[in-house]
Known about the structure:
Blueprint: H1 2-19, H2 24-33, E1 37-43, E2 48-56, E3 61-68, E4 74-81, E5 84-90, E6 96-101, E7 110-119, E8 128-138, E9 141-150, E10 153-163
Antiparallel strand pairs: 1-2, 1-10, 2-3, 3-4, 4-5, 5-6, 6-7, 7-8, 8-9, 9-10
Amino acid sequence: MKTVLVVVMVAVAIAGAAARPATSADAAFQQLRSLSGNWEGKDEEGSAVRTNFRVVAGNTAVLETLKHADMEEMLTLYSVDGDSIALQHYCPTNNAPRMRATPAAGQLKQLAFTFQGAGNLPDSEIGHQHKLVIEFVDANHVTEHWTWRSKGKDTLMVFRFTRK
C-alpha cells in the first residue's frame, strides 16, 4: 500500500510540474544552469578574475561565487520568480542588492538585471552593485557587466570568462 501511495504522489507532482507552461524565465534559467562549473578570465585592465557557478537546492537556484584579484569573494544567488529571474547579491561591502531580469521570449543571448532594492543599505548613495548584464557568448564564454553605483555615479566593471 505504501508503494502505491508513493507512486501516486510522484505522479501527481510530475503532472503538476508539467501543467505549468514553460516561460521565457524558465529558458533563461536553464541557460544559467548550463554555466555550472569553474570559469577564469580578466577584467578590462587585465586583472585576473574567476567565478564558479553551482546548481543548488534541487535545481531551483544557481549560486555564483566570484573572486576578483583585488576584492573579497562575492556570492550571487539566481532563481526563477514567476516570469523573471531574481538575483540576490552578497557583497563584501555588507549590503545585499536584489535585482530582477525579465527575459523576452526567445532572447537567450543576455540577461539584464535591474536594481529592485537592497538589504542593509540604509541610503542609496552608499556604494552597491546596481545592475548586472550577463552575456552568453557561447557554451564556453560568458561576459558579466557589473555596474557599481556610489553617490549617484556609476562605474562599470566588465569580466570576460572562459570555461575551465
